[in-house]
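From the pipeline queue, job 12 of 40. The input is one protein chain; the requested action is below.

Action: predict structure.
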Amino acid sequence: MKLLIVLVVITLLVGAANASISPVVTEVGKISWCIDGLGLYPDTIGIIQVEKPAGAMVKSAYMAAATTGFRSYQLAAGDIKIDGADVVWTTEIANSIGSYNYWADVTSLVEDKINAAPAGRIDFTITESPDYDTDGELLVVIFDDPAQTTDNTIILMFGAQLTTGDNFNILLAEPLDLTDPNLALDFSLASSYSYQESSYQFSVVDVNGQRMTSWAGGNDDGITTASNGNLFTVGGLDDNTANPADPNAQPLGDKRYDDELYSLLPFVQTGDTSIAVSTLNPSNDDNLLFAGLYLRSVTASIGQILLSPTSATNTIDTMHTVTATVQDEEGNPIVGKTVTFTIISGPNTGLIGTGITDIDGKAQFSYSSDLAGTDTITASFMDDSGTTITSNEVTKTWELPPYTIEKDFRFTAVDFTPYNCGPDGICGTDDDFQEPADLGMTLPDVDGDGKSEVKYVLNKKGEVTSTNPGQLYAVITITGIGIDTVVLDDAFGTQFDVNPGKLGGGVEVLKIGADGLAEVLTDTPQVTFASVDNDAGAVSLAIDLDMPLEMDEELMIYIKYQTALKFEMPDITDFTNTADVTINEGTDMSAVAVVEFV
């Protein structure tokens, strides 16, 4: 699954006193949404619905509303009610058509009813007063949705777009991948004071320079004949993302030709790093107050600083790099800014780094961890007004490396604890030291078939007198942080015996440190059980380490073999040696090494 990090920047094409639509809510996670709208006049009571997914719970809910164009009416708390409860507006914005747009967080008014209800449609009673001066309202609910399998982003934008044109510039920190089967780029618009029954009142929308629609608007969500007081529409319930078949069509009288719910996918290509969405209201009397983006399988962040990647998982003691992208409100990179990276939670809480943005507005921070767990990281910078701007949060999960087991055959003499008499050349003095272990050379595999190669040495009767090499070691190497107990059952064929057939000489157990020095465990209490049975072709060991393995440490077991066929005819069947291991009483692993006779 490809994750895209999206930075949405809204820029005005034409300056105005009105506040352009800008992001007010961004949610990321296993989430989904539902949007519904309503225009009531001449009624004063109507129904807005919510479609609840199975098992979903309300994350947040919001209402937007608009008063009727050119009436200059301003809503008060309680003018609109949800199930009898007053909606208290937190934002009021004057628009371009002599009326006002409103925004409120209504989570507390709807969440209990929705969460208690079964999956499906849920009715909420909306009351308007005065109804003629209120053109309509919309309700958007964001759900924590267990049915979602990807991290999705929902962006809600509110304001009052200019009738003479606004532009949304969606910048992608990573190129789009249209092969992602989960990818969705859904776009919803809401407008008020738009009449399409017998009048050409509409807005046009272009995406990446291509016309998507020329017929946005109408009173799709009005419950009666179109009239001032119900000229309201929003892309949501009972609409679909199929874009207008003819993006240039303006079918007078057919307000449903465009339902204000769209997909941006037809206008983008794999590899795109930005999406430009432009709106224009040629009739100069529509009011676009809301836009919503539902980006499935896309992780998005809105603002002047974006941190990526949003999540990553690696083993401890490896390097991880996060990148902050700093841009102005028009999407231009800001060069030379100091960015502070902070780990706000996790095993490395409190770690701070800084970087300077380059020509692309990017700064990086790299670090590693020797502890397992999940770090949460943010980035921030100070803008020209002295305000600290903080990025989205990203996570880094550090995991212990997996346990590994390998097996091979080695020859030549080994020396597990080579001793150096030091610079003075006199053994037994204070400058003596132990050198890294000589662990032997791996038997050759000349033909590259994965089998080590051994030759029989025969007498004149064709009987085996020895092998070349004369003795060899089957070596089992086990790694993994936290390993403290190992149970080994090693099975081997009939051509070789363990010689001598005992722990010590025939079987050796070593702990190799990160510095290459060996600690010989063979004759210590850490080997709690040992059995060598040449007749059965089996070696069994139980090991209980005093100290668990750490990073870059290895547990090695050497089994020394000599031919079991002396003065017998050679057996050229492959000699297979299988090690079955149980680690920490719960993880079973195995490794196989094979000798072929050439």
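Job complete. Residues 1-17 have pLDDT under 50 and may be disordered.
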